[in-house]
Amino acid sequence: MKLEIERKYLLADSSWRQNCGPGHPIRQGYFTQGEDFQLRVRLIDDRALLTIKGEAEGITRREFEFPIPYSKGEELLREFCGTRLVEKTRYYLQYGDFTWEIDEYSGRNQGLYTAEIELPSEDTIFPLPPWLGQEVSHDLRYSNAALAQQPRQS
User: Fold this and answer.
1) Which of 9, 30, 113, 142 is labelled catalytic?
2) I need a labelling partner for 95 at 20 to 30 A (CA). Which of 6, 35, 63, 78 fits?
3) What is the pLDDT of residue 153?
4) CATH value of 2-149 in 3.40.190.10, 3.90.1300.10, 2.40.320.10, 3.40.1700.10
């Protein structure tokens, strides 16, 4: 099981598009979650992943992720996730020595854009790109599990 340490931001503008590569479509759904964990299935490109995320402590949480057959991922989304879905396109962008994940949401969260950075430790210092807006790392309304249940457009 690995530790996931990440910070999440809203975007201030669309200037990030000038330097990003192609987008990767993502569909992910959430099963009924417990108080201290989330269970998710994600379809990205031609892969499917089943992920268990532990309760967050600050910007750190435990994560266990393993690949499953794509057809099983589609079946899990259809049979067990109901409307608890998030649809987005993910773009990867280098800024300084770090890779940022920019998510352009569609479906019920159409119009929402977020940027995430995974870090080696909570105290890692990194340069802030000019296109970043407000940090929402501690705002649970912007977690993907919350967006699956309570959509936001910005």
Assistant:
1) 30
2) 63
3) 76
4) 2.40.320.10
User: Rounded to two decimals, what is the model's pTM?
Assistant: 0.93
Could you tell me which of 103, 124, 100, 122 has the C-alpha nearest to residue 3? Answer: 122
Residue extents of the structural domains in the chain: 2-149
Which tens digits make up the pLDDT trace of 81-105? 999 999 999 999 999 999 999 999 9
Q: What is the mean pLDDT of the chain?
A: 94
